[in-house]
Structure formats: structure tokens, C-alpha cells
Amino acid sequence: MTKDLLLEIGLEEVPARFVSDAVNQLADKLTKWLQQSRVEYGEVKVYGTPRRLAVLIADVADKGSDMTEQVKGPSRKIAADENGGWSKAALGFARSQGVAPEDLYFQELQGVEYVYATKNTLGIDTAQSLSETLESMITSMTFPKNMRWSSNDLKFVRPIRWLVALFGSSVIPFAITGVQSGRTTRGHRFLGTDTDIANASSYVETMRQQSVLVNAEERRELIVKGIQDLAAEKSWVVPMQEDLLEEVVYLVEYPTALVGSFNPDFLHIPKEVLITSMREHQRYFPVLDEAGNLKPYFITVRNGDNRSLETVAKGNEKVLRARLSDAKFFYAEDQKVTIQSRLERLENIVFQEELGTIGDKVRRIVKIADALGTIIGVDDATRSDIRRAAEICKFDLVTQMVYEFPELQGIMGEDYARIAGEKEEVAVAINEHYKPRFSGDTSPASIVGTIVSIADKMDTISGCFSIGIIPTGSQDPYALRRQAAGIVQMTLDHKLQVSLSQVFGAALQVLQESNLVKRDAQEIKSDLQDFFGLRVKNVLTEKGIRYDVIDAIMGSGIDHLSAAIRKADVLGAAVQDAGFKTTVESFNRVGNLAAKADPADTVDAALLQEQAEKDLYEAWQAAYPLYHGCLVDEQEAKALVVLTDMKDVITTFFDSVMVMSDVDNIRRNRLALLNGIASDLRQFADFSKLVWQ
Prior knowledge:
The chain is α+β, with helices and mostly antiparallel strands.
């Protein structure tokens, strides 16, 4: 027989960002317990609101299934005594399994006899066992932040105010901090009342009658529809940022969207400031026209029905007016302070204890950016813009606006720099140098912003590596992985003619000049290569490149990122051709024997005796300039064709020539020939990494 199982934890308002994870954690604990207890169950649904975490599981068996299992004990040698009776080890095994000694028996396993017991375990009573385990299941839940209340020792996300636990229509009794489980729940704080749930399956509809929509997806759909309807009515555009929408879903139990307005005079403040103030402080959705201009309206979602919407709107408008007045004040005050004064204040802000202040970091960024500009070969005007953008890229960190809204760093820097009369290219670069800000974000559009961004991120990464701060596991306090991924993304997006070793070298040179390198420079470079290699591997994986092709490309080095990506695309296409396998086999024969060569040896054409080795040498000499020319011209597909065309002459060589000749200078000469060819092959890929089905 099966019944539905309902567990609801009633709480004081839980922070919206905790609800989804918490209710999923509760469901996971319940289902794992059911599985371990061999209790069959059906569909699992989770419900979460600011005041409740609930799990409803359909068709839960009222009894766990019985189990018969064969348990292996010690070998006969240990289980039997000298008289043929059971030893102490065997008797102990019988006790541990709950069987009588006479029920033990021997059975052979892989040529050895062991003592066995057949163990019969009866299924549990679901309701009774839940009554014994629900308290510990709930109190073992974890949250980002906990609190204690009253005189209780329990630490939980918020105080527990009621508990509902039903198996079908029967209450599962247990208690936590003096709160006894039952069938009574609480409705909407203002629109509902306390009410009894007759049975688990009626939970959703019972709560609906109390103005509580427990299904988060239903609330989401209502919120989106409400916003879209209001936008359509006014011909507005209302961007619904996913993280804001997610938060609002878990702020309300009965959502109703409504419109408010603010004084158009505030529109002279940058729209990013107004939007941030509305979103971050008030959880409002900004309103734009079809051209993307901000309008003096907002949409908010109340936790209630559509009564007294005008009064609610006025209350929200009053609160927002105070917020926007603060923003207006900050914006005006910030413009009274010069950029130079801001830069001087950066000397008092610590970036990292061992790496100095933000002012120190800015000076390093300037030097790194200048070096990168030289390597890439930008013109003098652009180089001047790069230097100025690097000098002032962090000045807005000490503005009142960014202090109030840290997420506006760069955005305010661009606006204030423009107002202060800085060149447009410089102002834009101040904002762009933070990009990409997150996974999926775009790269800076300008070369100035790109160079400063790479310099900033590379300073942070190399600086941390230099003092031994290297991400391990989930620990990455300075977001070095994200910043390295950003450097890879920008290099590829802009097809920058710079190698990773040049970028590393520029950053480490500046750190060495500042006496900040605390480890061996070569070790740091090696660690940086491995660290960035993982980021490149991620890029190739996301492109759908085969794992063995990725390994082959990584094996040849990823110093030149764009070339590595192009080679991966070319090789990924080539391995789809079954005939390419024989070509790779010939390449690998070259590589295997080349490993025995002395790297100092070079080919002496006068020592070539067999026609096949002469042909191979001539083919290699003819292919070499063409192959390298293709690589320089970024024509990796043609380069691979040049290598592939050597397959037949390589095969003939191995069929006709004894490489490991007894004559020392002949053998060394042949190995040197193969080593030269293998060196060229490795510039494209480590073909030995390719796997064939």
C-alpha cells in the first residue's frame, strides 16, 4: 500500500537566496533515506516560499521491502578450529550477522572456501521510522548562515515556528525545539489564517486557499506575466534580469506586479546608477523605452493581491525617492574631486598584504600594459591612450558612488573620466578593463580596454603565483581562474599577436623590478603554463573537440592561443577520416625512434646511403619551408596536408632502411633525420595522443 508523504518546515522569513538550495537539500535527504531504507516512492516535488520549505513525495510505500542477502565471512582456515568446530572468529561473525552458528555454511570463491551466512532483513515501517529520524534529518541541514533563538542550542537558518508531517492523512509525530509536528500550517501572513491539511496530496490546493502559492514555478510565471502585461499596456521594455527574478520569486508567496514612478529630474544621473539602485536596494524592475532609454517608472512585485495597489505604489515611490536622492548627492559630490586626488587615495588601500596597495598595483598595470602594447605593435597614439587608461583605471574605487554600489566600478570611472575631459578612448577603456566580468560576458571592444584588462588580470594572477597563492580545489579567493579565462578569451577574440610566455614574462619582469617575486621564476612560469593550459582545455572542450585531439594539441604547446585553437579544429576534422589513421601511425613510428636520437646530432647528407633515406631527406627538405610558411600564415589546414603528403615516403623508409644500423655514425645520422622530422611534427601536435576506436 502507498501513500503520499508531506514534510513542511514553517519558519520566520528566510533570505530569498537560501530557499531553493535549502528545499532541494531537504528533498535529497528524504529521498536518500527512502532509498537506503528500501522504501519505494514515486514523484518528488519541492515547494519553497520565504516562510516554508516543503517536500511532497507521491506513492510512498508504507513498508520497506524485505531483503535476503548472502554475507561472506572468514575463510575455512580461520573459521574452523582443529576439531572441525566453529572458531571464535566464526562465532563472532554469526553474532554480527544475527544468525545462529548452525546456520553458517561454507562456499567456494575463486578456489578458496569461505564461511557464509544468509541474512534476512525485514522491511521497516515507514511512518514509525520517519518519526524516529525526521528530527535528526532536519537538524542536520546546513545553510550559508545560521542563527539561534530563545534558549535553544539548535542553529538553523531561521527560527522554526511550525512543522507539518503527514503520511497520507496521518500525522508523523516528532518535535524540534519544542515545536511539535502536526497537520496545522499557516497561510499568507496577511491574507491567510492557520489551517489544517487533511492529507498530504491536498497540500498545494489547501495552501492556495490561504493565498500561498507554494510552487515556485507558478509564482515565477505569474510574475513574468504580470510584468509583461504591464509592459505591453504601456509599450515599455522591461528587462528581467534572471538573478533578480529568481530572488523576487522567493520573496513572495502571492505575487502581484504593480507600477510606480519617480521624478524625471533623476534621469540626468547615469542610467546604470538608477537601475542599480532600483535592483540592488529595492528589487525593482527598471522600465526602458524601445530605444533602450530609461523611463521614470519601475515595476515591483508585492507579496499580496491587487487591493490598494495605488497606496502600495506610493509607499514604494517614497522609499525609492530617498534612495535616488542619495545617489544624486553622491554623483554630484564625486564630481567635485579631481582624478589626481582619487589616485593619491589609492595609496592608502591595501590590494594584498604582500603585494602592496592599489596604488602599487596601478603602477604595475601601467608597466605591463606598456610592454604588451610594444609586443603587439600598437601605434604611438594608441600606446599613449593605453598608458593613460592604465594610470587612472582604478580611480573610481574611492568614489562615494562605487563605495555605495561596488558593482558600478568601471562604469562610474568611464562617466567621471568623460566629465573630467579625458579622451573618449581612455574613458571607455576604464569601464572595459573589468571585462569579461563573468563567464559568458563579452570581451572589451577596444584594443585599449583589452590591453589594460589583460595587464590588470595578469598582474593579479602572476602576483598571487609569485607569493604562493595558487588556486586549489574550490579555493580561489582572488578569482584567478575567472581572470585567466578572461585573458584567454580576449586573446582569442582579438586575435592578438602575443604569446602566453610573452604575457607571463612582461608581468614577472615588473614584479621582479618591485622585488615581489618570492619563488623561482621558472617554477612560476611552469605553474602559469599549467594553469592557463586548463583554461585552454576548457575552451576546446566547449567547442566540442574530442578529448584525444585536445591532448594532442596540448602536447605540442598552447603558447600561441589562436594557433592552438585553429590546429585543434583542423586536427578534429582530420581524425574523422578513417584513412588518417595510417598517416598518424607513420608519424608515431618517426616519433618513437626519434626519442633514441642524441639531440645534439644533425643530419649529414653525405652519410645517407640507401635511396629511401635520401628520398626521405629530400622530401623533408622540400616540405620544411612550405610547412613552416603555412604555420606563419595561419594556414594550419595546409600545413597538415604538407605533413600528410610525407606519409608514403616515411613508410617506404621504414620498409627499406634498418635505422638501428651496427655502424655508429650511420645509425646516429638516421636517428638525427627522424628527430628533425619529429620536431616538425610536434610543432603541430603530439600525434601519439590520438586514440582510434
